[in-house]
Specification:
Blueprint: E1 4-5, H1 6-12, E2 29-30, E3 32-35, E4 46-49, E5 67-71, H2 72-75, E6 83-87, H3 93-119, H4 124-130, E7 138-143, E8 148-151, H5 154-160, H6 162-170, H7 175-183, H8 186-192, E9 197-199, E10 208-215, E11 218-226, H9 234-249, H10 267-275, H11 281-288, E12 298-305, H12 311-322, E13 328-332, E14 335-341, H13 342-345, H14 349-361, E15 365-367, E16 371-372, H15 377-390
Parallel strand pairs: 3-4, 4-5, 5-6
Antiparallel strand pairs: 1-2, 7-8, 7-11, 9-10, 10-11, 12-14, 12-15, 12-16, 13-14
Helix pairs in contact: 1-9, 5-6
């Protein structure tokens, strides 16, 4: 089912006809446009059009709580509790209704193209490309740490701002942007939005629309429509909502990516370092400066085997590891990786905390030795995995 925000219908069509909205909520979601006389039991999520000579409103009971588009002269006679949009009596309501129905047809056709592509096992990039014609603005998808996954147009993205250019080059947001988002609470707010909405951020120089992709009631990815060409529009809200809900309903499409499932702001970065995907020392140094770490600091690594443990246990464990410790913990393959900067935390804190967790939960933990320099992280990780494989 396609649902569109009333604000989008107002923006695209109704305002051209001199419509007055009154107190109707802009973010009210509408699933169709129909003549009022076609339903004896009107529904709240339908925009009804009161056409000329239709006396249906005389049969409506007070408190019907529906939304009706009517001529100004008819609106005054609608029953109490009926919300109304009005246009001047000179406007052709039948033509207005046709324009509104065309908008729903456009989005239904797009939804059908997405379904067809999904049935043909198309990639996530293919689905994003199919969406490019729905808005002149730029669409991209990231994981919960804002690591970019797919996008509609690389050249457009480069032209938006230096922030997006950096993200294209390195896959991550610049450190100063991430720091600003964490410090002013914007990182947590963005993760909490359920429906698509406009965002005017202190940390980005252009507004955007965001929709979180949920799976098992947890946010797993961010969908963005970035204001690259025109002012923020409610069409972008409609596009982000439909595409976001489609990805939620067909979440398996995202399985081609190693998504950040914990919702922290560094898991994807560490995973890329361990896989050898990210090797640029300048980009790595910039990212770890987010934690006030340095490339030549001393570090210690531990691996916790999680075979047979559910996600809820992993989250509890991560909380206990990171609480008041300064450690970083993240999921990688079948293990929980714990990383400590010994130049900051001290050489004894990691082994002590790992032993307590092992005793409390009967965990299989491999504790590494202190090593000098962040570039040796991947080497030490593979050394510990080799030890665990023989344990």
């Amino acid at each position: 089912m396609v649902k569109l925000p009333l604000s989008f219908l107002m923006e695209e069509c109704i305002q051209e006809h001199g419509c007055q909205k009154g107190s109707v909520p802009a973010y009210r979601w509408i699933t169709g446009v129909e003549a009022l006389g076609t339903h004896r039991r009107p529904q709240r999520d339908i925009l009804y059009v009161l056409l000329d000579n239709d006396r249906t409103f005389e049969e409506m009971q007070p408190g019907a709580n529906i939304l009706v588009l009517a001529h100004e002269s008819d609106a005054v006679r609608l029953s109490v509790g009926t919300e109304s949009l009005t246009v001047p009596d000179s406007e052709d309501l039948f033509a207005v209704m046709g324009e509104l129905q065309d908008l729903f047809a456009e989005f239904r056709n797009w939804q059908e193209r997405l379904l067809d592509a999904c049935a043909r096992h198309s990639s996530l990039q293919d689905l994003i490309n199919l969406s490019a014609d729905m808005t002149p603005n730029h669409i991209y998808l990231s994981d919960m740490s804002f690591k970019i996954l797919v996008y509609t147009d690389q050249e457009i993205m480069r032209e938006i701002s230096a922030t997006w250019r950096y993200q294209l080059a390195h896959g991550y947001l610049p450190v100063h942007v991430m720091k600003g988002m964490i410090e002013n609470g914007e990182f947590d707010r963005l993760n909490g939005y359920r429906n698509a909405r406009h965002v005017y951020s202190e940390n980005f120089n252009v507004p955007f629309v965001t929709k979180n992709i949920f799976y098992h009631n947890r946010p797993q990815a961010h969908l963005f429509v970035v204001n690259s060409m025109k002012r923020p529009r409610f069409r972008d809200i409609a596009v982000a909502q439909l595409l976001g809900e489609f990805l939620e309903d067909h979440y398996f499409i995202l399985s081609e990516f190693k998504l950040n499932h914990t919702g922290n702001n560094y898991e994807a970065f560490f995973n890329d370092v361990l896989r050898g995907v990210l090797t640029d020392s300048v980009a790595i140094e910039r990212q770890i400066s987010l934690f006030e770490w340095k490339m030549d600091d001393s570090y210690m690594l531990s691996l916790i085997r999680l075979s047979g443990r559910d996600e809820g246990f992993s989250r509890v464990l991560m909380y206990q590891i990171e609480e008041d410790s300064g450690f970083m913990s993240f999921l990688h393959d079948e293990c929980l990786v714990v990383l400590a900067n010994m130049s900051v935390n001290g050489a004894e804190s990691m082994p002590e905390r790992m032993r307590r967790l092992s005793d409390s939960y009967s965990l299989e933990i491999c504790i590494g030795r202190e090593f000098q320099g962040f570039p040796k992280l991947r080497e030490n990780y593979h050394f510990l995995t080799a030890i665990m494989s023989y344990a």
